[in-house]
Amino acid sequence: MNHKIIKFQIFGDSRGSLVSFEEKKNIPFCIKRVYCVYGTNPDQERGKHAHKELEQVVVCVSGSCTIILDDGEKREAIKMNKPNAGLYIGKNTWREMSNFSNDCVLIVLANEYYDEKEYIRNYEEFLNGTAL
Ligand code: TYD
Predict the structure, then answer these.
(1) What is the structure's pLDDT at 131?
(2) How far is CA 79 from CA 53, 108, 111, 130, in A?
(3) Of the listed 46, 48, 49, 82, which one is catalytic?
């Protein structure tokens, strides 16, 4: 499957904790876009799409949620609840996000600008590759 967990160093002291994301260092691509997902209603699901080329790293900096990843053959559920563990999601990977806690905040780093044409939003098209 085209995903992996990236561990970030925690710089912690008596004041609290800090994690840092640096392109081509602990993030395996150049960062063109950063967006934030927050205030998600716990009974809502997000995602339900794949990207033709986009690569992303998702970091859950507050609260928790579940991300299901699907490469067309295998599905894996990943619990997101640690600011020091990023989820790298490569291209052509279907993702579904659910079980959002009220305080869940996701920071998403991406290697390209937003482009709706680059999304695969139909699961059948994703499975048979016709959207590529
Ligand atoms: P969408 O990608 O569908 O969200 P999710 O995958 O989390 O369910 O995006 C929701 C809306 O926000 C949609 O109208 C597109 C817009 N959007 C942007 O304008 N820029 C962005 O970088 C992203 C990720 C979304």
Answers:
(1) 79
(2) 24, 16, 23, 30
(3) 49
Which residues contact residue 73 at a Cβ distance below 8 angstroms, ignoring those fewer than 6 apart? none
Per-residue model confidence (pLDDT) at position 132 = 77
Question: Residue ranges of the chain with pLDDT lower than 50?
Answer: none
Buried b (16+ CB within 10 A) or exposed e, 21-49: beeeeebebeeeeeeebeebeeeeebbeb
Q: Are 110 and 44 in contact (CB under 8 A)?
A: no
Looking at the CA of residue 116, tell me the nearest atom of ligand 1: 15
* Radius of gyration (C-alpha) of the chain in whole angstroms: 15
Is-catalytic flag, 49?
Answer: yes
**pTM of the entire predicted model:** 0.96
